[in-house]
Write a structure and sequence with these properties.
- This protein is an alpha/beta fold.
- It contains 13 helices and eight strands.
- A six-stranded mixed beta sheet has the order 5-2-1-6-7-8, with helices on both faces. Strands 3-4 form a two-stranded antiparallel sheet.
- A hairpin with an 8-residue loop joins strand 7 and strand 8.
- Helix 2 runs parallel beside helix 13 and helix 8 crosses helix 9.
- The longest helix has 17 residues.
- The chain is elongated.
Amino acid sequence: MLLDTPSLYFRAFYGIPDSVTSPDGMPVNAVRGLLDMIATLVRQHSPAQIVACMDADWRPAFRVAAIPSYKAHRVASGDEEEVPDTLAPQVPVIEEVLDALGIARVGVAGYEADDVIGTYATAATSAVDIVTGDRDLFQLVDDEKPCRALYTVRGIRNLQIIDEAFVREKYGIPGRAYADFATLRGDPSDGLPGVAGIGEKTAAALITRFGSLTALLAALDDGGADGFPAGARNKLAAARDYLEVAPAVVRVAHDVPVPDTDITLPAAPRDPERLVALSEKYGLDSPLNRLLATLTR
């Protein structure tokens, strides 16, 4: 089980009032919410291994170099992401608690959590569940592995199972073609412009017709008109420079140098004394007891 941890703690933060605080008054809604999410996931899906994947770099330089607008609207200042004031102090607490529990926490300099997830998912020799609220990770769905996404859009207790059949039905594209489709369509939430004038339906038709972005670009460069909806060829030609660099931004990395870490689901806390101290300091007894009961059952 690969956790898109930032996606989950943001969801917890916005789903639980920040009036939920530690004994000293610090909001801990994201911390408590994430712990309860992990407890629910472990109880319902019983993973043998689990990785809390982290953003060591939320806006990697290689993606910004390719497309400068990438996540630019979410920059607070410099290289810092715009994060709510009451969430930012909770992230180090989340990291400390995960470490004390013994849940593998992996972030790699220069990469996003998505890239860590892509690397583990690609290397896995058994079934993989990716827990996320980010559609970008639908590109990793693979029925043969199998690898599926557990999509949190309807809540952690009502997860939407994303497999190749879902991708085909929802978007009208081959089950593993989500990255190519998303490159054409764009994603304003990530500052990805897409191809001007190419909406979701046309993007789906193009990817279905040509099978991949590589094949589409080859047909475009050949100069023929076969398979291109009316007007689409000129729009794609006008966006040729974008289409050259966008795949490196949209596609998650599969070769991140992840550390050699034990990702076995822990049966007991790695550092019980530290966990007790954190629980007392931040008032985490209830969610930690629920999670520990799930881990040790």
